[in-house]
Amino acid sequence: MKYIKHIFCLLTLFLVLSPAMAADQEKENIDLEEILMGHIKDSYEWHITDFMGKPIVLHLPIIVKSSTGWHVFCSNEFAHEPNEQGNRPGPYGLYIANNEVHENKICEMVNGEEVRPFDISITKTVVILFINAIILLLCILIPSRWCRNHKPSDPAPGGFVGMVHMFVMSVYDDVIKPTLGKEADKYAPYLLTCFFFILISNFMGVIPFPPGGGNLTGNITCTFFLALCTFLVTNLTGTKAYWKEIFWPDVPLWMKAPIPLMPFIEFFGILTKPLALMIRLFANMMAGHAIAISFACIIFIMFAINPVSGTLMTVVSVLMSIFMMLLELLVCYIQALVFTMLSAVFISLAHVKEHSASIE
C-alpha cells in the first residue's frame, strides 16, 4: 500500500512540475482555441504528440478529383507552414485553405475562383471510423464463436465474452424487449449494433492516445448518419395505421381540413425525432471533450499570468480533469443507452395497430 502512495505522490509531483518546466522553456503564446478545436475537428493528418519539439504526425492518403483529373498522394506533400495567404500549398495546384468558407479543406483555383474538388480522402475521422468498426466486429464475432461452441446448459462465460453478454442481455431485456414486445427479435440486431458502435466510439474518444483520441460521436456527420438510419428504419417499416395517424388523424374535421393543421404537425414530428437523436448525441459528447480539454488549458492560462498561480491551478485542473474523465466514462454508456432506447421507442410508435375509436 505504501508503494502505491509513493507512486501517487511522484505522479502528482510530476503533473505539478511539468507545466512549470514547460512554461520556463517556452514563452511563446499558446493558441488555446487551436488546442481545443484540434481535438474535435477533422483533418487530413493525425497529430499524435510532440517529441523533443518535433511533431509526430500520421500522414493520411489524399484521394481527390480536381480539374486536372484524379490524384492520389500522401498528405505530407502539403507544406507544413502556410504561405502569405494562410494556405498550405500542395501538388497539382491543390492546397489546404485557411478561410471561413473552406477552412482546412482541400481547394484549387479554377478561372480565378476557389472551388473544392471531389474529395474522398481518408481523413482522421475515417481512420477512427474504420478502427471502431473493426473493434465492433471483434465484439460481435468473438462472443458468437463462443456461443457456437457451447450449449445453453453450459456455465455462463467469463472475461471479455461474459462482459459482452452482460451488455447484450441488459440492453435487450431492459430496453428493446419491453419497448417492442413481440417484434423485439426483429429489430434487436439493428438496435444492438447502434448501442455497441456508439459505446465503442465514445470510449475510444476518451482514450487520449492512438488508436483512440478521436471524437467520432462528437462529429455531427457521424451522428447525422446514425439518426438517418433510425429515421429510415422507423418510417420504412411503419404500419398503415401509423401513416393514417399522420396524414388523417382521429381529430375533429376542422383540424385537418381544409387547413391540414394536425397533419402538418404530425409530419413535422417525423423530422424532429431523428434531429433530436442527432443533436443530443453530438452535443453531449462534444461538450464533454471540450470541458475536459478546457480544464487542461487553464494550466497554461494561469502560468501566463503567474507561475505560482499556475502551479496551484495545475493541481486543481488535474483533479478536475480526472473527475471529468470519470464522468465522461459514465456519459459514454448513458448516451449509447439513450440513443438505443429512443430509437426503440420511435420504431415502436411506427407500429401502431388499427383502432375503432374515433372522434367525429
UniProtKB/TrEMBL annotation:
Q: Where is the signal peptide?
A: 1-22
Q: Where in the cell is it found?
A: Cell membrane; Membrane
Q: Which Gene3D superfamilies match?
A: ATP synthase, F0 complex, subunit A
According to its record, what are the GO cellular component terms?
Answer: plasma membrane; proton-transporting ATP synthase complex
The record's keywords, sorted A to Z, are: ATP synthesis, Cell membrane, CF(0), Hydrogen ion transport, Hydrolase, Ion transport, Membrane, Signal, Transmembrane, Transmembrane helix, Transport
Q: What is its main location?
A: membrane
Q: How does it sit in the membrane?
A: Multi-pass membrane protein
Q: Which domain of life is it from?
A: Bacteria
Q: Where are the transmembrane segments?
A: 126-143, 155-172, 187-209, 216-233, 283-305, 317-350
User: What family, per the record?
Assistant: Belongs to the ATPase A chain family.
UniProt function note: Key component of the proton channel; it plays a direct role in the translocation of protons across the membrane.
Its name, as the record gives it, is ATP synthase subunit a
Q: Which organism is it from?
A: Hoylesella buccalis ATCC 35310
